[in-house]
Amino acid sequence: MLATIHTVALIGIEARPVRLEASAGQGVPATRIVGLGDTAVREASDRVQSAIKRSHLDYPGGRVIVNLSPADLKKTGTGFDLPMALAILAAHVPDSPAGSMSETSHDGEEKPTPKKPKGPNLTPRMLRGVWALGELGLDGQVRSVPGTLPAAAAARDQGAEVLLVSDHAAVEASLIDGLRVIPVATIGEAVGVLAGREAPRPIDDLPDVVTSTAKDLRDVRGQAVARRALEVAAAGGHHLLMSGPPGCGKTMLAERLPGLMPPLHVEEALEVATIHSVAGMRHPDAPLSLVPPFRAPHHTTSMAGLVGGGSGIPRPGELSLAHRGVLFIDELLEAPRSVLDVLRQPLENGEVRLVRSQHAVTYPSQVILVAATNPCPCGDLGHPTRRCRCGRAAVDRYRQRLSGPLADRIDLQVELRPVERDQLLAAPEGEPTAEVAARVRGARELAEERWGPGRTNRSARGEAVRATVAEAAIRALGRAVDALGMSARTFDRALRVGRTVADLDGRDTVSVDDVEEAVAYRLPVTVPVG
Amino acid sequence: MSVWEDVAEVGTDPALLRAAVEQHGRRGGAGALLRAARDRATADPGADVSALVRQVVTPVLAVAPETTALAERWARLGVTVALVGDPGYPSRLATGWPDTGGPTLVARRGAPWRDRPAVAIVGARRASGYGLGVAAWLASAVADAGITVVSGGALGIDAAAHGAAEHGGTVVALGAGHGVGYPREHAAPGGLFERVLAGGGTLLSEHLPDIPPVPANVRARNRIVAGLADVVVVVEGGERSGALVTAGYAADLGVPVMAVPGDVREPGSVAPHRLLAEGAAPCVRPLDLLEAVGQASVTSSDDSATATPPSLLPAAVRAELARRWPRPVRLDDLADATATPVGRLMGLITRARVAGELAEGPDGVRLLRAPRP
């Protein structure tokens, strides 16, 4: 008999529907899987066979063929185990003579008292509208696989009636509206539920969504300039570079940026969760977080780790894991040039496109990059008590790496100094995140009104930004760029940042004051002197 | 050497000299001749330096305008060349050298040397905000009193001194030729050198246009700084600072040396404190310098006071900067102390920097000129 069930294949974060057909018939006992599966898919036959038998279900004794369609789409992973087992069971006609004949020839020992399944077996009809996804253990347990979220979304979009996944994955899949998700712990339970012998269990309650972060800006004392830069970064989506000696609070500040950014919409949060789900980094029970993600890869992270990669279908890298959130790279200037360069294009385009021989995968990567660097190779330049031991030429060389193509895309650059201990104790608590976030939200709304949903001042077109700047401000900016010996690129950057400053103040036209503030957010490439 | 021998052989006959120069001009360039003359002059302490130099150098310059690219290059750079004894040569450079001579020639961009009191303010390139502030304070005050501020045009203290005395015709002694553009930051368009020239100041070099700023040259220019000054004041410097070299030249020449006391914990205070220990007079205010050049009675003229443009900063910000002067103030602290929103403060700082009211250093911002009470 022939049985059909539906499942999905993941290409990156994109889930493609797959029709899985199983045919059980007479012949030499053998199981064959066709349809361009990788090793994990081919190995499914062993897991499926063992799982079925250990669950005291009948495995067809004759020739079993499993087809994954479309057959030209490369399929990877272990998520096909569960649908494959169900299709094989449905295709199997246990009481047929062929079945019992093969059973004798094939497995004599177990033959005497096979515990018969209670109640009726699966029939192909029971699989109508059913989607399933999960890996099987040899004992018949159903396990989660990465990518439950996009799979569930794809199943819903394809008109699935029900989706069978593991208990864990069910919690995650239930984030998708408009789809009936049934948790199954074992293959036996799956058969029982589909055959109508068992009632589906309820899904564990989804923990509430996370809407706030514990890292509050209130904890940061002093550092008024950096706080302001952080606010502007959140409001305009600008990348930020902080330079300062170790221990001046760069990481602490960066960690507080997601809390300042507007919370994600549910769809955005799902998109973020999907990427994490595909990367296998999402705990299935974890609540959906509306706080933008914060990723802090070490500066020695490989290129593949940053942009994504790996054999087979490339996995998302840190750039994509930080999608709609913050990518924080400490010690930016210690990172190899090649890594810095590889960041550039994704930051520009908001997506990473990874092309492999078999696939081309695109992962989104709309991030705010927060980079931190020491002011000099030893880190003590400008420290109030420690003395920098670097030669001037060494410092200049170090700094000049900042003039590279990556740093050119960083609109905001600030120099931080350590806050001295007595100052730290005397300083009042900083303004709390909630207050700053409210201003940021207002500014973002103005920007979206102007540029369209989801757009920020950083991503807006240069000419369009310029059109909202007062003539006098453009003239003042030209004078400042000339007088302070800045590069022409500063001009465009200052217009965008000025736009954000005006938005934070709720003004339509960018004024002289705004661009003058914007100009102040830049680091000298050479050591500041007299 | 052979060049010198050639020249010595032909003697002083102008026609022969001219021929020799033309030949060497083609072979090794006029620069070889000039260097040979210099070497000879320094190798023979008994020689009449200026006569020797003139003997060789005059024909070079006589030939140069028509035949060498050198003259064109100098003209393109806007440089005027004066030899020892020429009217344009600062007379105080020609005399008083115990053994080595003063510079053979002085290539000048900008205004000619004015024979009026001069103060050299020198110090470390890697200076603290305090040092930069003090240098600027001293420089602006003595410039207001009509005194020429001389320094070496380097980054750090030198730049702070020149920058604060821009309006008063400050003199920069370069450690390289005019064509080299060193230090890069100062030679850049809109940089310190351009501003010095715009303010009626002068750039001096003893070198041919393309001589590089090798350490020996940079050190050697310190003797010009010392030679031009009536008093040398060292603001900050490390153990092996060029400022000590300048002070050494000054001592050789009999030019008084002063030093600004610094923070005893700072490595940059080593040089001034050593000088103080060795008998240099402390300089703790501009008046000390005015007294040293005999101008104690001269107070800053009224016209320069009225020429100061009105401040672009709010009174509270300006007052705080004046209170902390000449120390720099960090923006974070300035925002706190004046209760100014930091965004607005940053805009104001940009505006004041563009207008030349503020300087930004490694430790924050400070007023570029001394605040008037």
Approximately how much helix is present in the residues of chain A? Answer: 25-40%
The largest sheet of chain B has its strands arranged as 1-2-6-5-4-3-7-8-9
Helix run count of chain A: 21
Oligomer: heterodimer
The largest pleated sheet of chain B is described as: 9 strands, mixed
Give the gist of this structure.
The complex is a heterodimer of chains A (530) and B (373). Chain A has helices at residues 39-42, 44-54, 81-91, 97-106, 148-157, 167-173, 187-195, 224-236, 250-255, 257-260, 266-278, 303-307, 318-321, 337-349, 392-400, 421-426, 433-451, 462-466, 471-483, 489-504, 512-520; strands at 2-11, 14-25, 30-34, 63-69, 130-132, 135-136, 142-143, 162-165, 180-183, 240-243, 294-295, 308-309, 315-316, 326-329, 351-355, 360-364, 368-373, 412-415.
List the main descriptive attributes of the protein structure presented here.
heterodimer; A: 530 residues; alpha/beta; 5-stranded parallel sheet; 4-stranded mixed sheet; 21 helices; B: 373 residues; 9-stranded mixed sheet; two-stranded antiparallel sheet; 18 helices; 11 strands; globular
